[in-house]
Amino acid sequence: MLNSDQTPSAADWELQSGESHLLQLLKAGHFAVTAELNAPDSSDPKDVYANVAELGDVCDAINATDGSGANCHMSSVACCALMARAGYEPVLQMGCRDRNRIAIQGDLLGAAALGVRNVLCLTGDDVSAGDQPEARRVFDFDALHLLRTARIMRDRGVLLSGRKLTTPPGFFLGAAANPFVPPQDLRHLRLAKKIEAGAQFIQTQYCYDVPVFESFMRRARDMGLHEKVYLLVGVGPLRSERAAEFMRSRVPGVHIPDAVVDRLAKTPRKGKRAEGIRICVEIIEEIKRIEGVHGVHIMAYRQEDAVPEIVERAGILRQKTRK
Amino acid sequence: MPGSEWLKNRPRLLEGVYAGSKSALQLLYPLLKRILPAAFTERLFVWSEEISKGYLFNCQMCGQCILHSTGMTCPMNCPKNLRNGPCGGVRQNGHCEVIPEMPCVWVQAWRRDAQMGRYAGEIQLLQPPVNRALQNSSAWLNLLEGTDAQQPSGWTAIELE
Ligand code: SF4
């Protein structure tokens, strides 16, 4: 592991000019595994490395969230820069809640300079979801404006104003999709719009309802979208029925069917965690057979230590994030 | 306000009204411009838009109206100000993530778009970022003058591909 006070070496600069490792893997037809980093409430880089430790050996790339759930943590740009420095493949999550278009474009340039190659463009959870609901919400852009602006910077080498960039950022651009909330029958059309705006990969919201996901994919395939985008399905272990209840009522956009909650409720207390992992593994096994699915995105908040087991048992263990 | 909900759920009727008023304005505007002082025209337009569109659509006076492309549902009522919604936070009952008692305006917009005639399907267009400098100005005037269609040069760069 890289020492926190080590300065970037020549190898780091090489890394910065390279193409996204995640894109290369997907292009080569591998089933990708990404995971979410628990961004620390700390100013110490060691805390980032501690949280990434469980994930690094089993994941192809690691997402740094951008104040997810509208709670403040270490910034996603900083988490990504630290991960890149240590040789991990970061995915920068960039939302529209906290910054206007000027800050967004500046952060994109800065992130690219620090070695970030993958960007996930999000709308962002509303401030009301977090512990500082009295904050001003920005939302100058929406996720599609963000996507297209990042693409313009990359492909045209200009800022939104038209001003030229000396070195454009070389991004692999992603967006989120949530097939599990209304209007379910039209969610594939929003996916199409995101692809049009510049999305090359998708990471979905937690999937606990495979039939709903399947019908979403059927509609997406009918439009040929599965050939235009790499789609990684969001999954994660539930610790108990209480955790499930909390998530579906308090975390925006999470849908968990009653059957899943009941299954956890019926499991004796000592076995709940294992049952949650089993459900997660089963879901991965089902979705990896669906045509158009290119990988999974594991969000195991405060259960990062379960990720290696999940990856192994689901039969998708292969690559390492660290190069 | 009475009647406004009933009307909001009749996007086909509203799009007719929209198309009619647009043609009428385009016809009348050159004349208005000649006979009225510019400042007065602006005030007159802002005032009548606030009243009519305020009543019909809870218009937020963004100054660049895209109602006909969003099922005649004003997207600026979305607390996240999305121009390409809905977000991923919509509740299972179709209500807004931010305001639980309010139906998501974007779910309504997509449903209403499907009921429309001449503008149906326009909801699939990628809408450009909002020009915040036009807030509180008249969308009608901006339409007639073409200011609402102006985009930063970077935004259109990609179309040159
Ligand atoms: S749920 Fe609908 S109205 Fe509410 S913030 Fe999201 S898109 Fe806007």
Which key features would you list for this structure?
A: alpha/beta, TIM Barrel, eight-stranded parallel β-barrel, 12 helices, 40% helix, globular, disordered N terminus, B: 161 residues, mainly alpha, 6 helices, 0% strand, binds iron/sulfur cluster
Describe the structure.
- The complex is a heterodimer of chains A (323) and B (161).
- By secondary structure, chain A is α/β, with parallel strands linked by helices.
- Helix content of chain A is 40%, strand content 13%.
- Chain A has a single domain, classed as TIM Barrel, CATH 3.20.20.
- Chain A is built from 12 helices and 8 strands.
- In chain A, strands 1-2-3-4-5-6-7-8 form an 8-stranded parallel beta barrel, surrounded by 6 helices.
- In chain A, helix 5 crosses helix 6, helix 9 runs antiparallel to helix 10 and helix 11 packs across helix 12.
- Chain A is globular, with a radius of gyration of 19 Å.
- Chain B has one domain.
- Chain B is globular and about 55 Å long.
- The N and C termini of chain B lie far apart (48 Å).
- The model of chain B has no long low-confidence stretch (mean pLDDT 92).
- Chains A and B meet through helix 6 and helix 7 of A and helix 4 and helix 6 of B.
- The total count of helices of chain B amounts to 6
Structural class of chain B: mainly alpha
Average pLDDT metric of chain A = 93
CATH fold descriptor of chain A: TIM Barrel
> So what's the overall shape of chain A?
globular
Radius of gyration of chain B: 16 Å
Oligomeric state of the chains present here: heterodimer
Tally of strands of chain B: 0
Uncertain stretches of chain A:
1-16
Percentage of residues assigned to helices of chain B: 40-55%
Beta-strand percentage range of chain B: under 5%
